[in-house]
């Protein structure tokens, strides 16, 4: 294959750098553009230049569905240079409808997508052969659903017939129309939010009555939030109290069981106190049955100062010991008669 001179200034060197604008570079190839087939592009030929893939769209409210489509376009071939065409506000409002983002905002959003190598502002609505030749485009990437617009059933029909169309897959569940639908559906919520953030009713195109209604609803929501916060704090406090109470009751139960166990151990049927009492009772009983003798050298008992000493006993007149008490009635009478005789003799 004949080598062709193809110079494109400002090659992409860093992933962090934004994509360039076509107007600033105006990549003008001197050699004629060689047409490639998809099979050749997938084999990585030509070796002297990347395969130039073009993807266009509105890209309003740039989201993950847009990024995934561009990622697929970037990875179609081993060596791909991705050019993204963005339609202007004038064309978009004419053929599709009003946009949320301006064309400058949409251009800048595309420049900072990691898969984009070059951004083409004010892209045409319908791709012409002259446009494809001017920008040396090898293939056009888009989802294969027929795109009816500008009086055509499919604006990419002639691209498909020329063998230059490469399909990508749409991401279900996300689109610009879906996002706008959410905003319209929850309009009151977003209006109230922006009023609360400092936007005026005039900026939001909200009537005087609706403004007052939204502000009142904001106040009610704040009160509900405060009540909810108080309830959550109260629940947390009650939970803490219950937790502490459970711990305290558990400690009380443990202490009670310990006290009861100690009490039974001391005063139970086989407790320590019963043994001590039995030992003391045994000692007291043995002491009562066999009392100890007083020591011989014990000090004399002192008389109480309040009691007077007893008078000395008279001298004993009988030298003999007193007779022992009689053991019989006859002996008792004999002793009495002898005592009377002694008294008579003394007289």
UniProtKB/TrEMBL annotation:
Keyword set, alphabetical order: Lipid biosynthesis, Lipid metabolism, Nucleotidyltransferase, Phospholipid biosynthesis, Phospholipid metabolism, Transferase
InterPro entries: CCT, Cyt_trans-like, Pcy1-like, Rossmann-like_a/b/a_fold
A GO MF term: choline-phosphate cytidylyltransferase activity
Enzyme Commission no: 2.7.7.15
Catalysed reaction, written as an equation: phosphocholine + CTP + H(+) = CDP-choline + diphosphate
UniProt similarity note: Belongs to the cytidylyltransferase family.
Protein name: choline-phosphate cytidylyltransferase
Species whose genome carries this gene: Knipowitschia caucasica (Caucasian dwarf goby)
């Amino acid at each position: 294959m004949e080598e062709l001179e193809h110079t494109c200034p400002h090659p992409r060197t860093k992933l962090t750098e934004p994509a360039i604008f076509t107007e600033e570079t105006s990549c003008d190839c001197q050699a004629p553009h060689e047409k490639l087939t998809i099979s050749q592009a997938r084999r990585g030929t030509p070796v002297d230049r990347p395969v130039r893939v073009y993807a266009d769209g509105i890209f309003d409210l740039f989201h993950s569905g847009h990024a995934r489509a561009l990622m697929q376009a970037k990875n179609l071939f081993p060596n791909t240079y991705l050019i993204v065409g963005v339609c202007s506000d004038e064309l978009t409002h004419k053929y599709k409808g009003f946009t949320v983002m301006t064309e400058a905002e949409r251009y800048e959003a595309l420049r900072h997508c990691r898969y984009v190598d070059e951004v083409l502002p004010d892209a045409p609505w319908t791709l012409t052969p002259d446009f494809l030749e001017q920008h040396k485009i090898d293939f056009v990437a888009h989802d294969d659903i027929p795109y009816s617009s500008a009086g055509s059933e499919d604006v990419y029909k002639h691209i498909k017939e020329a063998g230059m169309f490469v399909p990508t897959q749409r991401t279900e569940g996300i689109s610009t129309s879906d996002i706008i639908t959410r905003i319209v559906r929850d309009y009151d919520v977003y209006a109230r939010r922006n009023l609360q953030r400092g936007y005026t009713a005039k900026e939001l195109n909200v009537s005087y009555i609706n403004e007052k209604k939204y502000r009142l609803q904001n106040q009610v929501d704040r009160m509900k939030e405060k009540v909810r916060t108080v309830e959550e704090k109260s629940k947390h406090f009650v939970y803490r109290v219950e937790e502490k109470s459970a711990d305290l009751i558990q400690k009380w139960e443990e202490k009670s069981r310990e006290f009861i166990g100690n009490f039974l151990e001391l005063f139970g049927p086989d407790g320590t106190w019963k043994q001590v009492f039995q030992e003391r009772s045994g000692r007291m009983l043995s002491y009562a049955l066999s009392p100890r003798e007083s020591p011989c050298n014990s000090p004399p008992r002192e008389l109480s100062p309040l009691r007077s000493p007893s008078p000395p006993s008279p001298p004993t007149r009988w030298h003999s010991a007193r007779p022992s008490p009689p053991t019989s009635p006859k002996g008792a009478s004999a002793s009495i008669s002898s005592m009377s005789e002694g008294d008579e003799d003394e007289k």
